[in-house]
């Protein structure tokens, strides 16, 4: 059996490494409306076309917390697949508006890492993530610090079940 991508463990992170996260995500009007409703954001600039037209942008804005959520999600496969806790999101900067139809791409730079003083099977990593739209405009940046397992940690074991019957051609 060949093992698929299992994500990075603490010892795999090197200060200065940059990970270009592989999946772009086009934001739709439905995404924006649902996320706005889900999070109870009542600012009509995000879900009312007439309010959007009357704004300085001339159309509805994608709610910034959706942009942040997409950026964090895009980074998981490369950064926090083996993490067990986020410790902080800092220095959040929303630098360009995001609109329905924009496609977002994210990349992360490893800033710091250290062993955990209280959890010998884990370490703490800080990354800086930035998100670009399809035109290369930076729309978001932030730093995120998280606990991540070391390779072989008891709690880092996968949850894939043992099959009762082997996979056959």
Please provide a written account of the structure.
The longest helix has 12 residues. The chain has one domain: Hotdog Thioesterase (Thiol Ester Dehydrase, Chain A), CATH 3.10.129.10. The chain has 169 residues and is an alpha+beta fold. The chain has three helices and six strands; from the N terminus they run ββαααββββ. Strands 1, 2, 3, 4, 5 and 6 form a six-stranded antiparallel beta sheet that branches. β5 and β6 form a beta hairpin. The mean pLDDT is 94.
Map the helices and strands.
Blueprint: E1 18-20, E2 25-26, H1 29-38, H2 49-54, H3 64-75, E3 83-94, E4 103-115, E5 122-132, E6 138-149
Antiparallel strand pairs: 1-4, 2-4, 3-6, 4-5, 5-6
The percentage of residues in β strands lies in: 25-35%
Number of strands: 6
How many angstroms does the end-to-end distance come to? 14 Å
Tally of individual domains: 1
Protein name: MaoC family dehydratase
Organism: Amycolatopsis acidicola
InterPro entries: HotDog_dom_sf, MC_hydratase, MCH/BMMD
GO molecular function, one term: lyase activity
In short:
The protein contains 3 helices and 6 strands. It is an alpha+beta fold. It has one domain: Hotdog Thioesterase (Thiol Ester Dehydrase, Chain A, Roll), CATH 3.10.129.10.
Task: Give a quick set of tags describing it.
169 residues; alpha+beta; Thiol Ester Dehydrase, Chain A; six-stranded antiparallel sheet; 3 helices; globular; lyase activity; MC_hydratase; MaoC family dehydratase; HotDog_dom_sf; MCH/BMMD
């Amino acid at each position: 059996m060949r093992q698929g991508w299992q994500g990075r463990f603490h010892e795999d992170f090197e200060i200065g490494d940059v990970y270009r996260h592989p999946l772009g995500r086009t934001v739709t009007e439905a995404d924006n409306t649902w996320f706005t409703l889900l999070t109870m954001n009542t600012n009509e600039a995000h879900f009312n076309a007439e309010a959007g037209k009357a704004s300085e942008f001339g159309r509805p804005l994608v709610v910034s917390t959706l942009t942040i959520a997409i950026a964090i999600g895009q980074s998981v496969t490369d950064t926090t697949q083996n993490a067990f806790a986020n410790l902080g999101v800092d220095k959040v900067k929303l630098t360009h508006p995001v609109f329905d139809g924009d496609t977002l791409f994210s990349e992360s730079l490893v800033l710091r890492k250290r062993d955990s003083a209280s959890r010998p099977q884990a370490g703490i990593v800080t990354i800086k993530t930035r998100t670009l739209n399809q035109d290369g405009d930076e729309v978001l940046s932030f730093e995120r610090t998280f606990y991540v397992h070391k390779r072989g940690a008891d709690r880092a074991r996968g949850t894939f079940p043992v099959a009762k019957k082997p996979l056959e051609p």
